[in-house]
Amino acid sequence: MHRTLSKSHGLFAPRRWLAGLLLVSLALPAAAQARVYTTPEQALEQAFGKNYEKKRLHLYPAQKEAIEKKIGRDVKSRLYTVYVGFDANKRTTGYGFFHTERVRTKEQTLFIVVTPDEKIRDVVLISFYEPDDYAPTDRWLKLLLGKSKSDALTPGVDLPAISGATLTTRSSADTAKLALALTVYAKQL
């Protein structure tokens, strides 16, 4: 009896198995680089302790358009969650916004806290699913502190550009602009 080799038998079966293993092993390093840096609960605790309220901000179409004009890009939603921090005397200490945005092909989530006088008080990287080489550094994120809506917040203009992480710095700066623009309406809640 004579046996012939086909694609589903003999020598070809291990090759398919090895090819599949190779594809999985190539995908693992990218997945292993995806990181959650802190939880939203930890970011809120750091920013406000236990003294905050969760509120919903619903923008009218004209408000959405005004924000888009101010930040120079489309805003995908008219509904936002705002975390309003307060002190022992119930005075507002800040407005916190979580924002997730696609950087290149994967997402980044930032938590930005804006003071009542509309300056960035804190920026926390919650998660980053692009390779670590493209992640914004703490040092770069700290450059956003103290910025207000009167600042351009443009990498290469009033913020340094990071070689190899252009899309990340642009996304982070745009998120900061959005948080500042939303604060105007959050103060009315």
Automatic annotation (TrEMBL):
Name of this protein: FMN-binding domain protein
Keywords per UniProt: Signal
Entry keyword Signal: yes
Leader sequence residues: 1-34
